[in-house]
User: What shape does this take?
Amino acid sequence: MQPGAGKRVAFYAPMKPPHHPVPSGDREIARNLIGLLTASGAEVQLASDQRIYDKHGDAALQASLRNQAEAEAERLIRGLPEADLWVSYHNYYKAPDLIGPAVARARGIPYVQIESTRAKKRLTGPWAGFAEAAHAAADAAAAIFYFTEQDHFALDRDRCGGQAVAHLPPFLPLYRLPEASPLDGPMLTAGMMRQGDKLASYQIISEMLSYLPGDWRLDIAGDGPARGDVETLMAPYGDKVRFLGQLSRAELAAAYGNAGLFLWPGVNEAFGMVYLEAQAHGLPIAAQDRPGVRDVLLPAGYPAPEQGPEALAAFTAGLLANPALRVEAGRHARNLISSRHLAPAAARRFWATVLPLMETRA
Assistant: This one.
């Protein structure tokens, strides 16, 4: 019998609803979580598409969002269809869950969070009120699931009462591995093209390519408002770099399947779904040793960010020059994904923590 059979789950993602038109890792994870719960036998309803997100620390916007959330919570307390559990994904100081705790409390159902961040340093400054709200929402959760050790420390330190803090390794919405790449194609990079951390990763790639010896090739999958900047960064390398544009899921899978390794420095990535996808196809990874990123990568002595682009180039060159090493790394990477990062393992971990909460309520 499926572990979630017959359970009615209200799902909410304050930062970005799963049907938002702009692709992102957050949207992808929200969709994957809904798919995981549904495949486990649960009946999942999107409780609200109310977006609560303040990117810039705007007090007026925060006040407006609070008012909207209060009205939405009152609506849901009265009108939400029967549910056995409330699940909120990604509660943090820029996007606190201002709705879930109130509705779950009023309706008498367990409230749990997946990916929640406690950031004490944000309790002062332009997001202070939202940071307090994020902490309060975390306090209200009967269980909080964390993806990476970086989040685990603060969640465990500030654990509220008998709250469960449980590991849910990031996962792919797959029940078996895709076909492995033969590893005889170009390097592959996949990332949105926007200002900030994504562009910073592209900047590192551009610099490291200048140190990379041999007859290499690089395909880049992705698009976005900073595409012109990325093209400028890669212009010195001419036709050695090919832009694939924004790809569909099937097209991206084909790109992984044709690649020889995956290259992405991972500047400020929470963990990076692309690393899971690439390793599922057996691609060795060229990345920097960063918090979050290291949680989902096969251990391999990745260079530290402070060692700079030259060290990343040397690491990448070692992989390119040794086909047997790439094959071995890819095989171990697939084993890692199969054992820890596919849907069956994630479902077992989730329901093992949540079902006792629901039984206590019953």
Summary: Residues 142 and 162 are 8 Å apart (CA to CA). The radius of gyration is 21 Å.
